[in-house]
Amino acid sequence: MEQHRARSTQHGPRRGTSPPTPLPPQARRGAGGGGSAAQPAKPAAARPKGRPAGAARSPAAVRRSAPPIVQAVRRLPNPRLTGLGCGLFCGAVMLALGLLDSLLFGRSLVVYGVLFLPVCVLAAVWVRGVDLVTVPIVVPIAFALGLVPVAQSGEGLSGRAVGLFTALATQAGWLYGGTLVAGSIVTVRKVRQMRRRPVRSRPPV
Question: Is-above-0.70 flag for pTM?
Fold first, then answer.
């Protein structure tokens, strides 16, 4: 009897000790599989709202995607002429084109009118934003100045004046067309300039 009691006391729980706490299921899996506990997957990097994947492009990629005509225009010189500089530019170029027309094309008014159109475009593009109003005024004066060597003139000062006014009357279509082209470009630039002003004056957020 004494031996049986001694054995039962040895195998029974000891007094003053708490029962072992059960292991969590993750620890049991790790212990059973012989590996470390599975770590939770890291969340994927959050993308900014409103921008799909691959939407952001570098400026170089945007420039490469531009058509060849736009790239050719960007390579051209882009000076900024004042009102006086625009008047001198148009007058000098049209006078040179009039002399060239009288020497090479036999004073052809059609050739002179065709050459007048690109000068109007360049004047409207190269003038400063402050002097946009001067372009529609300068262009007709330059047309009349360059028409002096091209117009058929008579003898004396009165004959030259009559020839000049006759050429202006017969070639009014080229004059109005070039002035209209220059005025349209100037109007577009003025509208874009007025739209940019509120954005610049708006305080930063």
Answer: no
